[in-house]
Design brief:
Layout: E1 2-8, E2 18-24, E3 38-41, E4 54-62, H1 76-86, E5 92-99, H2 111-115, E6 120-123, H3 135-138, E7 141-144, H4 149-166, E8 172-176, E9 179-182, H5 198-209, E10 217-220, H6 224-231, E11 241-247, H7 250-254, E12 277-281, H8 293-302, E13 307-309, H9 324-333, E14 338-347, E15 351-360, E16 370-377, E17 383-388, E18 399-408, E19 417-426, E20 447-453
Parallel strand pairs: 3-4, 3-13, 4-5, 5-8, 5-9, 8-10, 10-11, 11-12, 12-13
Antiparallel strand pairs: 1-2, 2-14, 6-7, 14-15, 15-18, 16-17, 16-19, 19-20
Amino acid sequence: MKILLLALCLPFAICACKQQTDTAFTESDKIITNPGQGFASCTQKPRTDGILPYGVGYGRYDWSDFEPEDGKYDWSKIDELIKNYAKIGLPVSFRITCANYHSKKPYSTPKWALDKGIKYKPYNWEKERQNPKSPFTTMTRYTPYFDEPLLIELHTRFVKELAKRYDGNPHISSIDLGGYGNWGEWHTYRLGIPEATPQTRRKFADAYLDNFKKTPIVFMSDDAQTLEYALEKDGKFPRVGIRRDGVGGPWHYKNWIGSKKYSRIPKMGEIWKSQPVLLEFISSPNKQKEWSMQRAVDFILGNHCNVFNDNFHFKNTFTSAQDAPLIEKLKKYIGARIVIDRARILSDSQSVEISLKGRNVGCAKIYLPYELVYELRTPDGKTAASFLSKENPSDWLPGEISISDKFELPRNLPKGKYELVARLAHKGKVLKDFAFAVVEANADGSITIAKISI
């Protein structure tokens, strides 16, 4: 970090001479873990293997996990998820399903709900091809027919209670709009039942859209028709972010933004500018013929992904020596990556003027509510005064960043030497700071933009 101090004395100035400080910073090459972006750890407790920069804890659950009895709720799984990741200053995200081919129990929709008269079907997809020693793959499960009016009524009631408890919770980065289809992915593949009508699918979407007004909702993109409806709900495009659980598969590349399937959503490629994009490998490209890791990485970054599911059962995907450079690229550039190149500060005993120039070199932006805060810190590290920038970090799309602020200093501020520090702080004050990607960053991710005397 190079600091240049200049004294500017203007003729006829009544106040003391202004002190100018110019500071240059160096872009860091390190992998940085920041909240709400990077990779999602699909585990109830944070992973400690150090393979990936995890910025989100992610859980997938069944409706039956939370409503074991009619109208009686147990939220312990989500509460535990939040608690575990709060300890390291990271947010969480989750999805709740009514049918789950990979569930470890027979009922994803509570048995008591089916017993009320909801039509359902036992299913065990290709049992003869599964491992007979593994109940995870051979268990008979029970899925409701999604057009059943009582199912819609009871599940909507459940989502209302879910929203009462968690909508606006600052520990939650987003919630998948689940409920309908296998794995909550808005298709009935492997369930052996027909798709529900468009009217029914909209009702499942409305359960979330009508009740979650603060926490971002992310919608699976498989159902293009309902996606179009959800994106325009409440007259605000885009109402939801999008998720694609199928990166790597050639079929999925053909059925994405710009394809015939999504022709009715002409602004689909603009969603990322205001709502998050979450992606996930369908399988390990290393194990699939004619699958290209290069193409997958280009797709992930090119579609402005801010959170990518690690799919821990494909661990080799992220440890293969042959693909290490590509994985390193993913680790570094998924989401936002904020670099400050230079700072110019003009200060005297009455005010401080700040000019920062930098770049967002990541593929997306900051979606969580962060704010740019300046602090005057004493030599022993205490904050003597703080100022809130008028800039909104969520406006920093990939590309150049220019910041200009001016503040009046407190009249009772003791004279002395201070460090002027810039930090990206979480508005909810529950997540750790968003770290700048510069070599000179402090241990907490902030940067010292000037050393001034007052």
